[in-house]
């Protein structure tokens, strides 16, 4: 497949180069548009406009494909998260808190969340002096 792709790429580049060379050799102008609104352009200008149009169409299609893939991945991840939440069961309702202290009104002890070990960066520099005075 890669070999066929490279052959097609070389044919496309060679054909484009040949057509560009041929259009540069031309001295006549191409008429475009209906009567009353005609414009004359060189063949190379028409060729460049066509190439730019194809490039913009290709870029737009690539952006649509990338957006579709990203949206599909997000929907898949959301579906997996929802299915994981369904397997655990319903989440417990939050306990009412005191409006003044923000402490839970019930005295039921809760287990602390397990600490996650994260690697800490190692510093090779000495600790910077602080402006605090020791008593």
If you had to describe this structure to a student in words, what would you say it looks like?
The protein has helices at 2-25, 43-88, and strands spanning 30-32, 39-41. The radius of gyration is 34 Å and the shape is elongated. The chain has a domain at 9-88. A hairpin with a 6-residue loop joins strand 1 and strand 2 (39-41). A two-stranded antiparallel sheet has the order 1-2. With 135 residues, the protein is mostly helical. It has 2 helices and 2 strands, in the order H-E-E-H. The mean pLDDT is 76. It is 52% helix and 4% strand.
Question: Which structural category fits the helices and strands?
Answer: mainly alpha
Q: Give the low-pLDDT segments.
A: none
Biggest beta-sheet profile: 2 strands, antiparallel
Q: Into which percent range does the helicity of residues fall?
A: 40-55%
Distance between the termini: 77 Å
| Order of strands across the main sheet | 1-2
| Rg, alpha carbons | 34 Å
Task: Please state roughly what percent of the residues sit in beta strands, choosing from under 5%, 5-15%, 15-25%, 25-35%, 35-45% or over 45%.
Answer: under 5%
- What is the succession of H and E elements? HEEH
Principal-axis shape equals elongated
Q: Mean pLDDT across all residues, rounded?
A: 76
Please give the oligomerization state of what you see.
single chain
Number of strands: 2
Q: How many helix segments?
A: 2
